[in-house]
Each structure stands twice: as structure tokens, then as C-alpha cells.
């Protein structure tokens, strides 16, 4: 139905659905495969639940993304939205070094697939977040705005930031 309505991107694995409906990596992988099979781009949400050891967070997120991507055809384009659950709704986004560490761990996934992979960050995303987090080896491609996307002024600022960078 979403494809018939003209949708091109569909979110799978959002932390709120994981929490409210018990969705896990297996159900997210199944949804992502179905989204791709219907000629839409899955936006796969990955992220650690608690703030802590960065190496453990990177291990978790890398394994999570790999499990989900294994179900998606190699040629299908995918967006991976790194959204640390602890940063969602927080006052501040994860810092540059944290996000770049995660993106560096995810970057080899781009070379391992024929389909394009884009990386986004979500979690306390406001105007200035993309500028603060971009610029590094991880190649951040965009942001997942959540609440800020509901405020027209903030969304316009974020869009301008993305198009200028």
C-alpha cells in the first residue's frame, strides 16, 4: 500500500516501535527486506540503548546493522539511521567523536554491498547538529529530525544546513 501511495522511503526498527511492540533485529530485517522488495528504500534505525563504553556501542551497532542488512538484497539502496536511544529526546546530540566512531565502524558496509548506503544521525537533532557531527571519515549524509521536523522554522534551518554543506 505504501508503494501504491508513492512512498519511496520507509522507516524500520525505530526505537519507539522496538520498545512499544517488542520489535527486534529479526523483525526489522524482515520489514527491511519487504520494503526493498516493493521498490522502496528501507531507513533502518540502529543504535545502543544506554550511554557508555564507545567500543561496546560500536560493536553493538555494527552487529545490529549487519544482521538487518543480511536480509536486504545486495543491490537495494538502504539508509542506516544511527539513532542512539539515549540521545532521543535529550538536550544534546551525541558528540562528534562518538558519532564519527560509529560511522567509521559502519563505513565498510558501503564497500560490502552493490546498492548505495547512506548514513543519517538521529537523536536530539536540531539546527546545527549536522554541521557539528559531519566532517569525518564516516561521511554523514543527513539527519533524522524527529521533533525538530515538526517545527517549520527549525526544519527550514536544518534543510538549509544540509544544502549548504
UniProtKB/TrEMBL annotation:
UniProt protein name: Triosephosphate isomerase
Organism expressing this protein natively: Phytomonospora endophytica
Assembly with partners or alone: Homodimer.
Gene Ontology annotations for the cellular component aspect, listed alphabetically: cytosol
Keyword set, alphabetical order: Cytoplasm, Gluconeogenesis, Glycolysis, Isomerase
Catalytic activity: D-glyceraldehyde 3-phosphate = dihydroxyacetone phosphate
Keyword Cytoplasm applies: yes
Location (main, coarse): cytoplasm
Pathway(s): Carbohydrate degradation; glycolysis; D-glyceraldehyde 3-phosphate from glycerone phosphate: step 1/1; Carbohydrate biosynthesis; gluconeogenesis
Domain of life from the UniProt record: Bacteria
GO biological process, one term: gluconeogenesis
E.C. code: 5.3.1.1
SUPFAM superfamilies: Triosephosphate isomerase (TIM)
Family membership: Belongs to the triosephosphate isomerase family.
InterPro entries named among the record's database cross-references: Aldolase_TIM, TIM_sf, Triosephosphate_isomerase
Amino acid at each position: 500500500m505504501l508503494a501504491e501511495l508513492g512512498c519511496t522511503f520507509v522507516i524500520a526498527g525505530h526505537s519507539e516501535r522496538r520498545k512499544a511492540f517488542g520489535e527486534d533485529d529479526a523483525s526489522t530485517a524482515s520489514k527491511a527486506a519487504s520494503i526493498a522488495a516493493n521498490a522502496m528504500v528501507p531507513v533502518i534505525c540502529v543504535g545502543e540503548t544506554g550511554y557508555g563504553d564507545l567500543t561496546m556501542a560500536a560493536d553493538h551497532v555494527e552487529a545490529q546493522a549487519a544482521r538487518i542488512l543480511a536480509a536486504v538484497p545486495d543491490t537495494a539502496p538502504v539508509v542506516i539511521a544511527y539513532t542512539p536511544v539515549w540521545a532521543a529526546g535529550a538536550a544534546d546530540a551525541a558528540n562528534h567523536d562518538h558519532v564519527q566512531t560509529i560511522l567509521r565502524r559502519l563505513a565498510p558496509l558501503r564497500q560490502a554491498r552493490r546498492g548505495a548506503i547512506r548514513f543519517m544521525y538521529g537523536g536530539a537533532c536540531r539546527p546545527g547538529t549536522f554541521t557539528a557531527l559531519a566532517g569525518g571519515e564516516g561521511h554523514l549524509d543527513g539527519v533524522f529530525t524527529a521533533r525538530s521536523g515538526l517545527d517549520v522554522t527549525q526544519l527550514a534551518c536544518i534543510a538549509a544546513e544540509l544544502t549548504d554543506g
